[in-house]
Write a structure and sequence with these properties.
The chain is mostly helical. The model has no long low-confidence stretch (mean pLDDT 93). The chain has one domain. α3 runs parallel beside α5 and α5 packs antiparallel against α6. It is 77% helix and 0% strand. The radius of gyration is 17 Å and the shape is globular. It contains seven helices and no strands.
Length: 195
């Protein structure tokens, strides 16, 4: 389990990448132990997932002509399972491709930064869902705002890949595409299995 100092330093590095700090990567501890500890970031990420998923359930249930085969608890469980699998599948797939992509040396550093950076990403992604949940945004506005946030998130993921992998812009973009593709496949697989 990471120490509070390690978590705060990692978040400082994650925010530093977004702000263009060239020294942001020095805030991440890079070791085999730190690699595995970075997956602990899923625990503080859970409230964001719950907030987003609960709001998604309400949006879907309020949409005419949409019928779900699962109740709210089942929907939440499947969405959280999908999120947990994504945290595992993407690092495994990228690990398999690390040698052909020539990122073996920087792979662990990238996953450490990627995992911790998921916290500010999820905090940003939850923003329109929070507004919807407290009645300040209609359901139609959630998708509109989320689209703009998604563009920023993709840019941020690209910056993380640039900083952590030390690779060119094209390879960094390819890693982001792989990330998105892996997440879509996991969501499709869990959706096909349970919905």
């Amino acid at each position: 389990m990471p120490s509070l100092d390690e978590i705060l330093q990692a978040l400082r590095g994650a925010i530093g990448i977004a702000l263009g700090d060239e020294n942001a990567m020095r805030h991440f501890e890079v070791s085999t132990e730190a690699f595995f500890r970075s997956f602990f970031a899923f625990i503080p990420a859970l409230p964001f997932y719950l907030l987003i998923t609960t709001a998604e359930w309400r949006i879907i249930s309020e949409t005419p002509d949409v019928t779900l085969t699962l109740d709210k608890s089942g929907f939440l469980a499947v969405k959280l399972l999908s999120a947990a699998l994504s945290w595992i599948v993407f690092p495994v797939v990228l690990g398999i491709l690390a040698r052909p992509l020539r990122i073996t040396r920087s792979y662990a550093q990238y996953i450490i930064a990627y995992n911790w950076a998921s916290l500010p990403v999820l905090a940003a992604a939850s923003f329109p869902f929070v507004l919807y949940s407290i009645g300040m945004l209609p359901k139609e506005g959630v998708s509109f705002i989320y689209l703009f946030l998604l563009l920023g998130i993709l840019w941020y993921r690209w910056k993380i890949a640039l900083a952590a992998l030390g690779a060119g812009a094209g390879l960094a973009a390819g890693v982001v595409v792989l990330d998105i593709g892996t997440e879509i496949m996991v969501e499709f697989a869990t959706g096909a299995a349970f919905f």
